[in-house]
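Quarterly update, task 2.4: pyridoxal-5'-phosphate-bound model.
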Amino acid sequence: MTTTERVALPTGEDLEAAKARGRRAYELDREHVFHSWSAQAHVKPMTILAAEGSYVWDGEGNRLLDFSSQMVNTNIGHQHPGVVEAIREQAAKLCTISPAHVNDARSEAARLIAERTPGDLNRVFFTNGGADAVEHAIRMARLHTGRHKVLSRYRSYHGGTDTAINVTGDPRRWPNDHGNTGVVHFHGPFLYRSQFHAENEAQETERALAHLDQLIRFEGPDSIAAIVLESVPGTAGIMVPPPGYMAGVREICDRYGIVFIADEVMAGFGRTGRWFAIQHFDVVPDLLTFAKGVNSGYVPLGGVAIGDQIAATFADRAYPGGLTYSGHPLATAAAVATINAMTEEKIVENAARIGDDVLGPGLRALAEKHPSVGEVRGLGVFWAIELVANPTTREPLAPYGGSSPAMNEVLAACKANGLLPFANYNRIHAAPPCTVSDDEVREGLAILDTVLDVADAHVRS
Ligand code: PLP
């Protein structure tokens, strides 16, 4: 028995006609579409017939509350009318142009981004998405320093292309772990599962920084081009860095002449209640990668925001990299409209308020009530619910890198009750759009309350 709601499709379509369209799309998908990260014979993808605001409609016409923002990208919600219109207008004016030419959408998008990034990140190199932004940031750091090694943390995700997947610190790297030399991983701070036997945040910060410093000295500081860090690691578990950690990394980078690359592909553009997550820590990186929220993913776009020092390296020396679609007019027009809408509608402020007043307190109350919740943590509209089979030993409800029947049951209960969460191993992430309303968050919390009863039934103590 499901409690998903039958609400008319926002497209105004007849439901039976829409469902028939969905069935045809599903048949074609299973015959011809090759899916990411999946054994092709085993995927059973959900069909989406329509989406609007914080909701999507599945192939049966059920309305689900989208607490995933898809791949944590629809920061302004689905089908924002102003952004849809801007894409339409740009398509009528100029669909595409070579990146060698000036186009007004790209120029304005770069200005708006540079205005919002911290410090002297004044120039933007546009890419097609997040992984290639990370690839280019690393290439810039290697050329700028003349060094080769790159450090990144375990429990991180930086993208699916060759260098990006090799700097990634999660199991998706393992089958791809041969394309890159000189990538070294370290442990970042994560107090709930501390690698450093820390009992509080101050200890975790101090010991995580000492570990990083020691690793650099053992690897050879003069061989290290960059440290790549998600400002708040996303897919790997939304572990907000404790006070002093990011400033400590900045200091270590300065001491050894290492480029600090902040990966804001998931955490950027309002997700944490600030334009960029690193602004919570008062730290300016040398390079900042972005994608997803820059235009809510309405048209593929990513990029690297470049500090003045690294920009100067390529003032007289050519940067050896480029893309046919760097600064694509449709994508950058969508970015301009998105950033302007976020500013005018105070969408970043909404994300901060929702996190402080509604979603954060609501999730903490659920953690108090349900023994299966080991910890909730996050900022803005970016929260992780860490599910455990045993609250004392903190044994996760699904193993690192895997799934479990218990976790599958929990996720099925989400869907049956009308909620689409982002899930990873033993975690559910509550990551609604930054535009989410108080009532929608309360609706999601009520569903999670029901769903967590299912998780509680698997708790052994
Ligand atoms: N970096 C981070 C932090 C991400 O979360 C992601 C994607 O989830 C990427 C990079 C890769 O972005 P894309 O999938 O657009 O290539």
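Highlight for this quarter: DSSP finds 13 helices and 16 strands in the chain.
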